[in-house]
Automatic annotation (TrEMBL):
Its EC number is 2.4.-.-. InterPro entries: Glyco_trans_2-like (IPR001173), Glycosyltransf_2 (IPR050834), Nucleotide-diphossugar_trans (IPR029044). It is an enzyme of class 2 (transferase). The lineage of its organism: Bacteria, Bacillati, Actinomycetota, Actinomycetes, Micromonosporales. This is Glycosyltransferase. Gene3D superfamilies: Spore Coat Polysaccharide Biosynthesis Protein SpsA, Chain A. Keywords: Glycosyltransferase, Transferase. It comes from the Bacteria. One of its GO terms (molecular function) is glycosyltransferase activity. Residues 3-133 form the Glycosyltransferase 2-like domain. The keyword Transferase applies. SUPFAM superfamilies: Nucleotide-diphospho-sugar transferases.
Length: 348
């Protein structure tokens, strides 16, 4: 278990305790603090002194999250490995369930489940495992490329150590999508497993998370995922039988996400419309997939832009958009629970 930490010393004891409380597995915990100015290194060293299963590395110089991730992964040993951020938590029984699937299916290199989001107090987890799903790597990649979104949160993932060694850690070329590229690459090296009907981890949502801004961070997020896809199809995925088709599907899905975000810039009316951001997102969509210049979402964006210029509100009234969004969110949630793959387009 590798636990990278930067300025999360106040979260670290709870995080580590959820690992030490795991039943049915032997745990080896390595905390790597990246020269946190908040005293996280001292917290890590105290935790290591209190339990022989815990070790700590307190860096004197900050090197950034990618090197910290990889140092943690390089420093742990065992058949399976988990990277758990110091602000996240494991659900009870998480490690034993993931390890059982990997032991039962040697062809699976990575297993994930569901991660509950929380801000302060984690909600009660579902603890009854319903079933396992095993996807051949190319089938999982097909689903993810067509959807465009990242369906997996880091704390819910367990990887076979041999797979992690083959992948040589996280890639600094995509600092905001290094986990996503890791999942894509894992699928090119083996099958992907999923645990159904049970909650495996908790992902903490707070102001310091990288992806909390609804539209302002969309360009970076979409661009980084696009870069991850491009690296993947130039390297690990270049020999897949349907590589060209899947690459085009990913580009199209991301273009539609960019346009959905651009439409969101007009949702609060002409006074609040962020027209420059909407234009940048629309330009990005066309760069990703030239055919997006004349798609349904682009036409809708042009109509809303024209109305905003005239001082009018969005084409679809707010109450109708809210109702649509509620239905779409529910359907997307059901799809995610059923298939394990999440669409990136969520605009109402």
């Amino acid at each position: 278990m590798a636990i990278p930490c930067y300025n999360y010393g106040h979260f670290l004891p709870d995080c580590v305790q959820t690992v030490l409380d795991q039943e049915g597995v032997d745990v080896d915990v390595l905390i790597v603090d990246d020269a946190s100015p908040d005293g996280s290194g001292e917290v890590a060293e105290k935790l290591a002194a209190s339990d022989p299963r815990v070790r700590a590395i307190a860096r004197k110089q900050n090197v950034g999250h990618i090197k910290t991730f990889n140092e943690g992964l390089d420093g742990v040993d065992g058949e399976f490995v988990v990277l758990l951020s110091a602000d996240d938590l494991l659900a009870p029984g998480s490690l034993a369930r993931s390890a059982a699937l990997l032991q039962a299916y040697p062809e699976v290199g990575m297993v994930h489940g569901f991660a509950l989001t929380f801000a302060d107090v984690p909600p009660p987890p579902r603890s009854d495992l319903r079933s396992w799903t095993i996807w051949p790597g190319e089938e999982w990649l097909t689903r993810v490329c067509r959807a465009g979104g990242n369906p997996v949160a880091t704390p819910e993932v367990m990887m076979r150590m041999s797979t992690m060694r083959d992948l040589v850690g996280y890639d600094a070329r995509v600092p905001h999508a290094c986990d996503f590229l890791m999942w894509l690459r894992a699928a090119a090296h083996g099958s992907i497993g999923r645990l159904n009907g049970v909650d495996q981890a908790y992902y903490r949502v707070h102001g310091d998370n990288m992806h909390t801004e609804q539209y302002g961070g969309a360009i970076t997020d979409i661009s980084q995922r696009h870069h991850a896809y491009e690296i993947f199809f130039e390297e690990d995925g270049k020999d897949l039988p349907r590589a060209v088709e899947l690459r085009d599907a990913a580009r199209w899905a991301l273009s539609q996400e960019a346009l959905a975000a651009a439409l969101g810039c007009y949702e609060d009316g002409p006074e609040a419309a962020n027209r420059q951001l909407a234009k940048e997102l629309a330009d990005l969509a066309v760069q990703l997939a030239p055919a997006a210049a004349d798609c349904r979402l682009m036409r809708a964006l042009h109509r809303n832009a024209e109305r905003a210029e005239a001082g009018k509100g969005p084409v679809v009234p707010a109450r109708v958009r809210a109702a649509r969004r509620k239905v779409r969110t529910h359907l997307e949630w059901r799809r995610w629970r059923r298939s394990g793959v999440e669409s990136a387009v969520k605009a109402g």
